[in-house]
Structures are given as C-alpha cells and as structure tokens.
Amino acid sequence: MHPPAPTLHELQRSLRDSLLHHAGDPACAHVIADGIDPAQRLGIYRHTIESTLARALRLSFPAVRHLVGPEFFDGAARLFAAESPPHHAGLDQFGAGFPQFLANLPQAAALPYLADLARLEWQVDLVLHAREAAPLAVERLAHQDESALAAWRFEAHPAARLLWCEFPADAIWRALLERDDAALAAIDLADAPVGLLVHRSGGGIAACSVDIVRLDACAWRLTSALFSGLPLHAALEQAPCPDAHAVLAGHLAHGHFADTCCARPMFAP
Fold it and tell me: What range defines the domain where residue 17 resides?
C-alpha cells in the first residue's frame, strides 16, 4: 500500500525545509527527476534563494560586509536566512532583523560594535528608500498663536530617523565605506555612546545622499521626544534643553519634519 499523498501544506513545508535548512530527503520524494536528480534540482533552487537573499543583505549592509569579509558575511547571511526567512515576496524589510542576529551571533563576539554598525546601516537603507513627503513649512508655525504652537505635534519626515548607539558607529561606517584604514585605526571606541540623526539630503530618492549627524545628549532627547509625537510643550518639559530654539530651527531648516501635525514615532530604540 502506498503512503497517503501529502497535503499541499505538508508539501510546502517539506520544500521550505529543504531549501532553507538543507533537509532534502523528504522533499526529494515529491520531486520528479525528469532527467535531473531530485536532490540536484532542489540544489539549483536552494542556490538561487541563498544567492538572492545574500545579495539583498549585501546591498543593505556594505560596511558590515567590508568589516567582516565576504566569506564571513555570506555565511552569516545564510544562517540568518534559514533562521528568519522573508515573509513577503518583496525584500524591502528582509534585513530588519539582521543587526540583532549579528548581536547574538557567537562568531561575532570579538566585534562588539558590529551590531551598532548594522543598525546604522539599516537606518541608512530605510532613509534612502523612504517615501517622498513635503517638509513642514515654517510659515505654518508662524501663523499659530502661542497656545496652538505649544500644543503642536511634529511628525518626523519619513527620510529622517534617530538612532542611539553604544559605540561610535558613524565614524566606523564612514571609515569603512571610504576604505580609510588610518581613520579606522584612529577611532576611539570609548567615544560613545552617540545619538545620531540619519536624514536624506539632495533631490529626493532619485538623486540623494544620506547625512549622519551627531546630536548631543540634550538635543537627542528633545528630538526623540518631538519625533515620538509629543506636543511641543510636553517635549520641552520631558527633555528640557537650553538650546531648544536652535535645535528646533535646525530641524525645520533641514526639513526633518513632515508637513502634517499627525505625529508618529520614527526613531529606532
């Protein structure tokens, strides 16, 4: 008596396990040879998937790859893909969990700043591909009375994000991308923690660059309060800053707020 045919769900799980976890034997039983050994046929698909996912991570984390080397990076990418495969056909969010994966990877323990570097590169990637939005016009604020302005909720521009790092990830990132070994060797890891503002500059998505600016602790706390959607008066109470007017003016001048008063959090924990 032949065993019962697998359900569609069982077949899909078997193929997934084979392609992502190299558990090929069960799946091979359901693959028609047709001139190619079933294991070889699955291997072709497995190689395509691994190459595609590794390429997606290489595009998002170039500095990380340069730091650890191509072989280590591709090995980590395969492990990550097996542990956290994409759940959508589009790969825009595939790398979101990669920084935390690197933080937990025993083989990367000798590089304690690696996860911060990866977190920064992910924010850079998000900023580069963030949707277009009109920046908040200063004239809108000028027409508000004092009480309305105190209650104003600022929304972070989609292409402006905050990140707090325990290591000087911005200096490491620049030195790696510029292939500046002298600058990399001169970095003081004790020059931290750092509060970073990652924002897009230039002519929109098609012709743009990403700037990374260090904010002092006071400015970072105020900015994070504003980006989280707190009204202006509440943000000033929660994060008092002697240079609050200068901080706010700088954000307005560089278009770090969107032209809306409906706030939402846009900073990384």
Answer: 1-111
